[in-house]
Amino acid sequence: MVLISVDRYVAICDPLRYSTKVTQMKLLNASCKRITRPRSEALIIYILMSCVSLLTVVLNLLVIVSIIHFRQLHTSTNLLLLSLAVSDFLVGLIVMPFQILLTEPCWFLGELTCTAFVFVLYITVCASVGNMVLISVDRYVAICEPLHYSTKVTRTKVKLCVLLSWVLTVFYAFMMLYGNLEDPGRFNSCYGECLINVNAAVDLVISFILPISAIIVLYVRVFVVAVSQARSMRSHIAAIKLQRSLTVTVQRSELKAARILGVVVVVFLMCYCPSYGISFSGPAIKMSSSTNLFFFFLVYFNSCLNPVIYAFFYPWFRKCVKLIAMLHILQPQSCLTNVM
Questions:
Q1: What CATH superfamily is the domain 39-336?
Q2: Which residues have a Cβ under 8 Å from the Cβ of 173 and sit 6 or more positions away?
Q3: Given the DSSP bridges, would you call strands 284-286 and 195-197 parallel, antiparallel or unpaired?
Q4: Phi, psi for 286 (deg, rounded to 5)
Q5: What would the pLDDT profile of 49-101 be if each residue is shown by its tens digit?
């Protein structure tokens, strides 16, 4: 019945290419082999991805509500955190549930839905990476040029940068998937498959090599300046003969800065490197294969870790979570609460 429906759809909606497509369907469908996963493996995938999806939505929603509601958090840096949380929230709300459906042997939502899913995937993931680059730039200016930070980084400039980042992300996703959007399913080897075709080399450079290089360079520069400032402070402490009592504090500050920056870079690399490694395997990406599913899951998991890395290190976030959990935000004038 499904094949009959597909045959009638092609005959009516695409009569000029009816004979060609029907011939391809006969040839390709004969060699199409469905890979059925063991029930235990499928169950683990469903439970794990569902839990990560729910956790990603909840954590990023807490960040979004906190920054939007409390006026004290309406700063330039927090606007970048808000944009990052929105992109990661969409990953958990839209991308992950559809990725769970790809664990099935057959994609039953149609070729257009497959292409639309990949389009949203590109937008959300690339927007998340772009926001991380903007946060790196913000931290670089704040630490390396503190005297000029208030003039160089304003809320208006940050809003324009965030808007431009999202616009460029949508444009990039459209250009990368233009062939797939023009003719959904053209790269499928059989019906019921979700297969896309992208320029792996271009995608690797634009969406991974360039942003990760910028993040590493900026964070290394920030770390060097932070260590230099800590050493200068330690020298000043020694000059006033308080070195013994405060050296431990300075050393802890250096270690904390190194640890946070190290977590940011290492987690990003661990989550993104494997997924972009499959770009070297060929231009076609079969979305439902077990290996690719694991690599994509790592990228999505980064969206779950981002609110932990960027928000849970801030004491104000923990206070906001308590106020939200206690429904304090429903009280009048709660937006004026001191959360810093």
A1: Rhodopsin 7-helix transmembrane proteins (1.20.1070.10)
A2: 119, 122, 123, 126
A3: antiparallel
A4: -85, 110
A5: 889 999 999 999 999 999 999 988 888 888 988 998 999 999 999 888 887 77
User: pLDDT digit string (tens) for 116-166?
Assistant: 888 888 899 889 888 888 888 888 888 788 788 888 888 999 999 999 999
pTM: 0.78
Listed residue (173, 170, 171, 165) closest to 138, CA to CA = 165
Tokens 């070729």: give the residue.
111
Report residue 267 as tokens: 């987690």
Q: Which residues contact 319 (CB under 8 A, 6 or more apart)?
A: 339
Residue 337 reports pLDDT greater than 50: yes
Who's near 86: CB < 8 A, 6+ residues apart? Answer: 60, 64
Instruction: State the residue for tokens 């839990």.
Output: 51
Domain ranges for the chain, please list them.
39-336
DSSP of 39-85, one letter per residue? Answer: HHHHHHHHHHHHHHHHHHHHHHHHHHHHHHH-GGG-SHHHHHHHHHH
Give me 188's structure tokens.
Answer: 């499928």
